[in-house]
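Slide 14.
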Amino acid sequence: MPWACPESHPIKGYVSRESGLRVYFLPGTRFYEEASPERCYATEEEARRDGSVPARRAEPVDAR
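Slide 15: predicted structure.
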């Protein structure tokens, strides 16, 4: 079971093994539930200030 972020900081961030980039996942996006974060952020702005970018294919789960 993946590690979860606290409710106050729901954005999951980690360093991508594939690219070496620091990426983040928003709640409700694809792969969010599977992601095991190294860091948790309260806002996207906070994640970006830390050098993170949105994960590729981070569209909402129900997008087609």
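Speaker note: The chain has a mean pLDDT of 85.
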